[in-house]
Amino acid sequence: MIKAKKKFGQNFLIDNQIIKSILDEIKFSERNKYLEIGPGMGALTSELQKKTKKLDLVEIDPDMINVLRTKLNSNTQLFEGDVLGFSDEFFEKYNVVLGNLPYYIATEIIFRFVPIKNVDTLYFMLQKEVADRLVAKIGTKENSILTNLLGFNFRTEKCFDIKPESFDPAPKVTSSFIKLTRHKDYENEITYVDFKRIIKESFKFKRKNLKNNLKNILNLNDFENLEILPTKRAEDLSIEDFIKITKYLISNA
Ligand code: SAH
Questions:
Q1: Does some domain include residue 222?
Q2: 12-13 and 167-168: which strand pairing?
């Protein structure tokens, strides 16, 4: 029996009901090329192989690689290495990316796919605390930098939560399964780089309002022109509000 490695964030899925629920959420099409990140010993992989024409895998742990090799069919290629070390060109070959992510780098992995335009749908399992921030609604305390940066390019949705006992070893926290669908709503409005700068400034000090966080960029007159209350906090603004602010700053620069 192989021991789970903490350093690779290994928590293996052992709950068949959850595996079934995950498969129910995924849209399968023969035209799609799927990439699974961190397949581990293949809890999801075998089932995914049955439903896809092309499924490739990226796994870092040589012990897992050895187990996986015995399970693969000819539609699947296995790539060994750190997923964060692969190139844009590598990822551009796929349009659906999924996986039960290693939680220690879940956020980095998700944001790695923001610039990979060919990837239009992502399904990930990660810790609930982070998932709640990624899918947060306006006006809640979970609405944060991550929510807005991801929302600029993706529609985000939580499918369900998963209790620790569904894994071996059981993680300390509850997990969530989320779905991200790429949209192009803001593509012609402003660049991601400009948007990101305003988001970071607006959320700089969590307890401060917009007037304070943006005091070097916007004065009270600007807020009036924008029709945004300066006493609001960043968490109360929509992505459209931030786009409006960004556009205003660009045109008044
Ligand atoms: N999908 C499996 C395993 C999930 S645990 C299951 O649900 O049972 C997370 C997996 O990600 C492990 O297999 C771990 O070895 C792998 N992993 C950890 N860090 C990684 C990295 N940087 N790049 C690729 N895979 C990684």
A1: yes
A2: antiparallel
